[in-house]
Design a protein that fits this description.
Largest interface: A-B, 41 and 41 residues
CATH superfamily of the largest domain in chain A: DD-peptidase/beta-lactamase superfamily
GO biological process, one term (chains A, B, C, D): L-glutamine catabolic process
Radius of gyration of chain A: 18 Å
Family (chains A, B, C, D): Belongs to the glutaminase family.
Number of strands of chain A: 8
GO molecular function (chains A, B, C, D): glutaminase activity
Shape of chain A: globular
Protein name (chains A, B, C, D): Glutaminase
CATH architecture of the largest domain in chain A: 3-Layer(aba) Sandwich
Strand content of chain A: 5-15%
Structural class of chain A: alpha+beta
Oligomer: homotetramer
InterPro entries (chains A, B, C, D): Beta-lactam/transpept-like, Glutaminase
Largest sheet of chain A: 5 strands, antiparallel
Strand order of the largest sheet of chain A: 2-1-8-7-6
């Protein structure tokens, strides 16, 4: 199987469609991005990297960072964290508050905004936002084995200005005592992790431990146990694409996590970690061309977890 | 890997816990079942069958039949069927009507009751219930290569008496014109398919095509394309356990479909089809010991789709 | 105050607007009505009757009959009836099912469909629909002192054919054991009471007991106690116009009950009973010109219960 | 009719029940109040005042202030204010956020928290909170003709500390652009108006304009037009007691507004303004003994708006 040829083909096939979908406009900094971009990178468990298109261009990973924040929180709080956040698909939009009211301030899963805010609260653990953000960034450097990855402070600031819904979610949960730190501290940290800036190659590298029993095969760094890697993959598959998770599983068949910056991290367990990026989003907020690319890739490689 | 030893161990380990959970009591015939039973059967794609406990005892498969009905409907209506039913997890109980009101009578997926009723309406396709039930039963015989499988008419009748919620769901959708036949015809057919009676061995055989690219390796019968088999598996993983689907994916990591009769059909793509049965249900309506058995089985075999 | 002049003026002022709004089209028989009609009748507690426009034309009272059915049920079951139906505005559409799921099958008030179906179930009280419908019609004859009032069986039949939502509501509540008779019996009775056919004069007469301490001053017939009359008026004011009840109270300031046939019964306590009719409905399902007429009437007479 | 005798009797009858219900505990300062208190005051349109029990003890009026804030906002923005807040009963708890999500950030009415926050935003109108609070307090002094009425800053501060739900509501609506000023400014103002401290006599005086065609008969001060007074009364009747509004209309039959401090302002149009206070609340958050007192008062005076 010639992976380079496959992703070159995909990139070529998608080039006439560049610009499809809508760039997220509620975060002012993201609205400025040129929509006609597409990048893809694959890192395999045997240590090879393949890339095509704008795979070297950094973009705002946004909600994809929730996967790494969850990994960090599981390391700190262990399975007891599930008292404060659920593990079920939400059946509603990424920023819905309805479910919180009906379920006493316990978010449905760590990949919707409310859940990720609770996870951030856990990672804070009494520290200052600056320290928590530093710890998070060091963790990303460790995962990707790349100290140049940074947080885009303009994007973080841009979110803080307009993130009224997230402020509402956090205060609402604080009213249920499911947020323990002052809301400004939690959201300050949350907005910074969302503003993590990575390119496709870095992102594929950072996620590779999930494809390889919890250990990054490039560095030998052990991140989590094999069982925990499987469980994070399971959460990505059932909850990783908001109210489009079922659709993604149906079409692509890989655990994945999308961000409104247009990126998607997908895991082929035992085989590879894949990052795609294209800024235009579909109607449920996932990268439109990114989803198409992964559907074709899964079909051509036979990597779907649901069968050859 | 000695599969027989693994399932014998599991059966022995669970024997002190027989009777845990609650038998579904809203269907009178099911309430009469002895809860202290447990059976498991595995059929592998290379043609071997393993069984333990009460694997030869027939039970009411209930919602597991939704997998087969969906397969039948996809054969008739193709992908156009997705105009009338969604592919997303529901985020609510198996018999909720709230979502239908908010989403114009389109059920979220084919594995909640409302969705399965729409699927049944598609399979009816202008025929009489008697014919549709006959077609469905022949399809099961074909899948399992076993003509002795039957529908328990007492159970079907028992459901009809108390199924007020299902009558409500069907009429509600008919008000949105998403049910095309008279409600009595649709529900008559629906209650009969739910009353399908199979033992674990028969059920594992019937599901084997989903583990083997759409073809039953025991008979060579082709049921669906490899792609469609993957897609049905994806739906089972994201939606197969009602509002416990995320939990099942997290703990077990296999596509699966449960029924309130206490059965679960699980698929290890490329490897095997597994049927477990134990009548006591957990709080979201899935077999309690059946779920535990599958969690242990997946751990010991390394069959989780989310990684070794 | 010259009431005849007031209603003649209103009728003249509204004549250029005849036909505004939309005639209910989901009940086929109602969809056939000429929308360019308007009638009004007032009966005062001192025994005078005033009428204008099409006040002598019979129309389908539809949900206005819920007031009379409630009066009948209160006479049978007394205040204990409130265990099975609430007394709060619903905050949702007249045929919503969402609230029922969240509140265990107890409808919010007797004037939304679900609540009126429960009230009908109470009035049935073990009798056959034919008897209950007979009793209801005799009660109307007694209230209006007019034996010519009848039920339009074509309308009743027309509703039965398309009333899927009502069948859903009734079965849903039966699943919560809040409907005691077979659903067909309850709905058969329910659809017949909705199909009650009256003209404005008859309707104003029938409601007059509510304006006069529970006794019809024209006949001297005592219907309910003064306290019960006040309470029924209170329910009409808070819940009588579905999700437009607040608006009606704000603009008109009288207890009232509307029906999708285009009629409204309004009560000026201590003064008069008023019936208006015009088939075109506003966006929440209440007679558009009827509401306007009552707003003007209340302003000119000073009859608002909220102050001179 | 001897009003003094009536309220003396009511006060005596209720004395064995003092302490029933639960004092609001989510505002720390309110939780400290001695629950065994009861006061009542009536001011009639002909200028007499009657009082009994703890009618001279100041208490936190809380949501009752929403009536005065609405009056102020109507004076500034006129009927155009209804683009930003509805006029329908909510069918849910006083602090629910669910409805806001389903209805694009437009609160159902000005008497639930979300609605009152929007009203406060209108009153701010570009000014600083200090100025808006000053204007509000001067308005209260004018209404009650009493310059000694003040805001309890400890209560205001106490709310600010724990009002996470209100912060959530405000930010949520700001996300829909239905709050125009910074949330801290709006809530700072909002919490201060809630912390208004009055005794029953002052409160009855302040509300008297609503019983007298918009003009305070004691001072001759004109506050609003007769039509606007009726409309505010209508809103109080349909929406003044959260999800207990229907119940209050059914039992008492007067426009009223309750606060979690245990106060209720009730209006008998054309007759009197009544203030009651007793800190223990019923299950929907309205003064338990206060509601009972008003029910008895309405029965004995015949003041129900729904008939003699």
């Amino acid at each position: 199987m010639d992976l380079q040829a496959i992703i070159d083909d995909i990139t070529a096939e998608l080039s006439p469609r560049l610009g499809e979908g809508n760039v997220a406009d509620y975060i002012p900094e993201l609205a400025k991005i040129d929509p006609k971009q597409f990048g893809i990178a694959i890192t395999t468990v045997d240590g090879n990297t393949y890339q095509a298109g704008n795979a070297g261009t950094a973009f705002s990973v946004q909600s994809i960072s929730k996967v790494f924040m969850l990994t960090l929180a599981l390391g700190k709080a262990g399975e007891s964290m599930w008292k404060r956040v659920g593990r079920e698909p939400s059946g509603s939009a990424f920023n819905s508050i309805v479910q919180l009211e009906h379920e006493n301030g316990i978010p449905r899963n760590p990949f919707i905004n409310a859940g990720a805010i609770v996870v951030t609260d856990m990672v804070l653990a009494g520290h200052q936002p600056r320290e928590a953000i530093g710890e998070f960034l060091r963790f990303i450097h460790y995962l990707a084995n790349d100290d140049t990855i940074s947080i885009d402070r303009r994007v973080a600031k841009s979110e803080q200005k307009t993130g009224f819904r997230n402020i509402a979610l956090a205060n609402f949960m604080r009213g249920f005592d499911n947020i323990k730190h002052p809301v400004e501290m939690v959201l300050g940290t949350y907005f910074h992790q969302c503003a993590l800036s990575m390119n496709c190659v870095q992102l594929a590298n950072a996620g590779l431990f999930l494809a390889n029993r919890g250990t990054n095969p490039l560095t030998g760094f052990s991140v989590v146990s094999a069982r925990r890697a499987r469980r994070i993959n399971a959460l990505m598959l059932t909850c990783g694409h908001y109210d489009g998770s079922g659709e993604f599983a149906y079409r692509v068949g890989l655990p994945g996590k999308s961000g409104v910056g247009g990126g998607i991290l997908a895991i082929a367990p035992g085989k590879a970690s894949i990052a795609v990026w294209s800024p235009g989003l579909n109607e449920v907020g996932n990268s439109k061309l990114g989803s198409v690319a992964l559907e074709v890739l899964a079909a051509r490689t036979g990597w779907s977890v649901f069968g050859p």
